[in-house]
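Justification of resources, computational component.

The compute hours requested in this renewal are based largely on the per-chain cost of generating structure records like the one below. Each record pairs the submitted sequence with a full structure-token output. That output is archived, and it is also reused by downstream analysis tasks.
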Amino acid sequence: MNRCIIGFHLDDEQHWVAELECGHNQHVRHKPPWINRPWVITPEGRAEKIGVVLACKKCDEGAPRDRQSV
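The structure output for this chain reads:
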């Protein structure tokens, strides 16, 4: 199911996580050469991605929300 990004935070391992409108979280790592997301390492890059749609596998699976304050 497609969901919009509403924010970002760092996890315990200092990897960037997108916060989705549905209450789920999704990692958006930049780990070349396997995953190329250089935009995630700057505040400006992350800000440009607010509102961008990601496919939420957790919604497809009916998983409970990662955050309750949505």
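The mean pLDDT is 93. The CA atoms of residues 37 and 56 lie 18 Å apart.
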